[in-house]
Prior knowledge:
Layout: E1 2-4, E2 14-20, E3 24-31, E4 37-44, H1 46-49, E5 54-55, E6 60-63, H2 65-80, E7 88-95, E8 100-103, E9 124-125, H3 133-145, H4 164-174, H5 176-181, E10 184-187, H6 188-197, H7 208-214, H8 227-233, E11 254-257, H9 260-266, E12 273-275, E13 278-279, H10 280-287, E14 294-299, E15 303-310, H11 311-314, E16 325-327, E17 334-341, H12 345-355, H13 357-362, H14 371-395, E18 404-406, E19 424-426, H15 434-458, E20 465-469, H16 471-475, H17 477-487, E21 491-494, H18 499-511, H19 518-525, E22 529-533, H20 537-576
Helix pairs in contact: 3-4, 10-18, 14-15, 15-17, 18-19
Domain Carbohydrate kinase FGGY N-terminal: 14-286
Pfam families: FGGY_C, FGGY_N
Organism: Hymenobacter glacieicola
Amino acid sequence: xxxxxxxxxxxxxxxxxxxxxxxxxxxxxxxxxxxxxxxxxxxxxxxxxxxxxxxxxxxxxxxxxxxxxxxxxxxxxxxxxxxxxxxxxxxxxxxxxxxxxxxxxxxxxxxxxxxxxxxxxxxxxxxxxxxxxxxxxxxxxxxxxxxxxxxxxxxxxxxxxxxxxxxxxxxxxxxxxxxxxxxxxxxxxxxxxxxxxxxxxxxxxxxxxxxxxxxxxxxxxxxxxxxxxxxxxxxxxxxxxxxxxxxxxxxxxxxxxxxxxxxxxxxxxxxxxxxxxxxxxxxxxxxxxxxxxxxxxxxxxxxxxxxxxxxxxxxxxxxxxxxxxxxxxxxxxxxxxxxxxxxxxxxxxxxxxxxxxxxxxxxxxxxxxxxxxxxxxxxxxxxxxxxxxxxxxxxxxxxxxxxxxxxxxxxxxxxxxxxxxxxxxxxxxxxxxxxxxxxxxxxxxxxxxxxxxxxxxxxxxxxxxxxxxxxxxxxxxxxxxxxxxxxxxxxxxxxxxxxxxxxxxxxxxxxxxxxxxxxxxxxxxxxxxxxxxxxxxxxxxxxxxxxxxxxxxxxxxxxxxxxxxxxxxxxxxxxxx
Length: 577
């Protein structure tokens, strides 16, 4: 899928931002001086669409690198053809994270090597894969008790199963063949950048954003956690630290130039600069024109909340229960702080799957229609059904519905990561309707966001404005108005439809020397804001009351989860005895 706009004759420098999401990749070609979008293209991952290598019941979500490579070629070639290749001076990649994968000594992903092509453990472990719950629990327990540095302190004090070391430890324990064949491991954004530049694995510039937020990298203890700690966690991690990296680099720096092979494959030249990689939310925050003490909410399948603050003002302050605080992870020279929710679009998509099950199971098969036409008809009917549901949910009077939901269907990311938690509904009656349940799910997302804002402010990080971007922010006025009412704050919505890709393009423009720094690139290339949602005073007090009920409900479910986990552990000990 591709869209284009006329190229500006006033500039001869263009950059490409490439954004890898959970189910697709998109590339945007923009004027490096003005930010004008020239073309964009989107590619859906073929294997992911079939949910190959995934098992939702086990929270296993893996992606094959061929999906990423095919998407890279398809999208970049489409957008690059609109201007002369020599005028495309830079590109940059952002990805979801933490999404690590095993590689050989040359940086080749194991799933691209004979014998590993169909092995999920040899693929990239997507951010929302929670198979590493036990390993995350071990990291947290050992970081506090081993007698050395607490390596989780800059990660919010709680390490998540969504992150780098937990996933690696899980895979090497589960799969001896992968453990033996994996020379090293790379975050998705790093691997793709290495792929394009053709550099050496040992000297390649790793992402500060990825390493600081997910791999417990911090300069105060010399980079990554010590060899002693890692081998205490899992002996099979022995020696891996020295095969990873020591230094990290911000996303405005040059990782290298396009290799000759990839310049030909993408229709570009070897003069094109490739910037250091980053995560999608952090790049999106740059495009959302983030500034000190703004919170940019990147709202897609999940939500990442990004805040930046001057280093000299934060000092040694640590914010507990978030997803890390890293010098330069968003804007070089400023502290980047990350929080978020594990399911937003995914939560609403889950409910869609539930209510459309009869549609997919019982819609008559017609011999007059091809399988593709039948699927298109189902999608059309489902889209119409969801549009009506959204409209009806927006019309529900909150005073007349007591349905309350928890947004933890994929665990809780922040505050205080706990991926073992589950979603829940309460106050259902014989009169409860689908629109009421859908509204409760939307409200639960907003209550979860309010908890995050409160955590930052309780820890001395003021939130002076809130900015929304991403598919949910652009498409759901109902969601954004509810969020403004729950937070009792205005919410600006960024204009760009592809904000992470635009943010990556800004990084690329700095790396290519078009702009001296990221703040200057923001001012020159920013698209501004589409609209602002202001709180409805008539709703604020009621939502505050319901928010307190949400908190109490959450405490009950969390206690019940802990009790159940304890009972399971006790039963396992008895069985072992």
